[in-house]
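Incident log, support desk, overnight shift.

02:14 A customer reports that sequence design results differ from what the structure should imply. Their input is reproduced verbatim below. On-call engineer (initials T.W.) acknowledged and began investigating.
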């Protein structure tokens, strides 16, 4: 009898454990649509996991049929934002477990050359939208709320950020959209209202924003969270320049004291939520790479120390990824190898030229500046031929155009076509075209900024090669 009772208890315990490990509230979501211009392709639905490095994860994939039909099926436990990546277009919808959505997407379009060359190109957000949205559904509510948010932002802007006007606008948003009461919708509204307050707050009032943000906490799959997060903590240290707070940050960064930074964020901004505190630390240090207030090596070291000091595994990994991103092109660090095809179709690698200094010119034949650069670089190649190899790699280009623009040059420079232009630019962080890089004979970066081919660079090369004799 006792043995049977024990077995029953064990079975009940196992059942409860399975229920705990495998929640039953996950429900299938179906997203379907049709567009023949994507026939035969595989589409991928994604959602953001963080927007410091714009990290995202795949939710589902769908093969588009011959007639253009596609259908995503996936399980989720909570409503969230999902998006369909596109080269020139993208868009977002909000999905809830257990529901189906019919969507429309415009015909497939690729970026134009000018869009490809833009250093901060953002795809148009009209790629993906609900067909005949339910007027009471979350997608329609979000659209209506965003329209109202824009209206009240303009109203507050017209009043030059008057405190009473801003608070009135926030109260009205809360009143009009009182029915946004699911967790996702409520968080969305709260983050947006706090963003409105943050946009018009002076340094003293910002203390209230920090405190309210800390109470709201983190909702990573909510786009409004990231909009508020990036707005409030963007360039936070540079914005304190000259204040007592700046010198506290300065001491912390110069000593790479990660624990002190986390403590300072908690005490100064009243952020006790562990996840939010760690994300803020990553954000404010990562931004310093672009601000140039501190040596880049200090920023990378601080991020590495932050990773070690953090308690959440995802944040440890994120801190290291940010460190790798901001430190991937440091002077003195090894340059990534890259591959290109010459005009005869022969494959080459940058590493072929180790032992010489390498000057890399990432360019495009349609830019007027490129022709002038090539003539200067051709002279550099002839002058320093035994010690320097110039590699011109053309992105988003055609062989005929490159042949035309390089005709009449000495032929000593390397002229390549990039097989994957977007990948190459990402690896070398080549935001602008043209981008220039100088590497030493061991393949380490010598010069990134101010590497434009001109007299200043010629004098630098004369000095380098004279000293290497």
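02:41 Re-run completed on a clean worker. Output:
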């Amino acid at each position: 009898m006792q043995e049977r009772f024990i077995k029953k208890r064990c079975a009940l315990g196992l059942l409860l454990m399975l229920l705990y490990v495998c929640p039953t509230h996950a429900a299938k979501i179906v997203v379907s649509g049709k567009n023949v211009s994507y026939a035969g392709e595989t589409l991928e639905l994604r959602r953001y996991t963080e927007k410091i490095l714009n990290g995202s994860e795949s939710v589902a994939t769908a093969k588009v049929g011959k007639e253009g039909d596609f259908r995503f099926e996936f399980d989720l436990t909570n409503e969230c934002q999902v998006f369909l990546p596109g080269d020139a277009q993208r868009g977002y919808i909000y999905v809830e477990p257990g529901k189906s959505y019919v969507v429309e997407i415009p015909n497939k379009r690729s970026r134009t050359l000018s869009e490809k060359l833009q250093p901060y190109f953002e795809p148009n957000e009209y790629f993906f939208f609900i067909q005949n949205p339910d007027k009471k559904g979350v997608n329609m509510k979000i659209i209506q709320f965003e329209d109202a948010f824009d209206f009240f932002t303009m109203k507050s802007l017209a009043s030059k950020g008057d405190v009473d006007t801003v608070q009135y606008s926030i109260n009205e948003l809360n009143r009009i959209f009182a029915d946004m009461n699911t967790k996702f919708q409520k968080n969305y509204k709260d983050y947006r209202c706090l963003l409105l307050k943050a946009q018009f707050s002076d340094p003293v009032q910002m203390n209230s924003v920090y405190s309210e943000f800390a109470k709201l906490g983190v909702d990573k799959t909510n786009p409004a969270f990231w909009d508020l997060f990036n707005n409030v903590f963007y360039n936070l240290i540079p914005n304190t320049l000259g204040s007592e707070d700046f010198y506290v940050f300065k001491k912390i960064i110069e000593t790479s004291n990660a624990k002190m930074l986390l403590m300072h964020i908690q005490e100064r901004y009243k952020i006790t939520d562990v996840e939010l505190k760690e994300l803020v630390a990553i954000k404010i240090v990562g931004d310093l790479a672009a601000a140039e207030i501190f040596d880049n090596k200090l920023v990378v070291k601080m991020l590495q120390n932050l990773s070690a000091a953090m308690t959440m595994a995802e944040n440890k990994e994120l801190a290291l990824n940010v460190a790798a991103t901001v430190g991937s092109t440091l002077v003195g660090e090894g340059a990534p190898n890259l591959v290109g095809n010459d005009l005869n179709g022969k494959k080459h690698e940058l590493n072929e030229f180790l032992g010489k200094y390498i000057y890399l010119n990432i360019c495009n034949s349609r830019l007027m500046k490129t022709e002038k650069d090539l003539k200067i670089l051709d002279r550099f190649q002839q002058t320093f031929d035994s010690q320097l190899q110039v590699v011109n790699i053309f992105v988003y280009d055609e062989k005929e155009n490159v042949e035309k623009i390089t005709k009449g040059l000495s032929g000593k420079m390397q002229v390549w076509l990039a097989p994957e232009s977007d990948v190459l630019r990402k690896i070398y962080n080549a935001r602008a075209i043209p981008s220039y890089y100088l590497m030493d004979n061991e393949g380490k970066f010598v010069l990134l900024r101010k590497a434009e081919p001109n007299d200043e660079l010629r004098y630098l090369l004369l000095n380098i090669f004279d000293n290497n004799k």
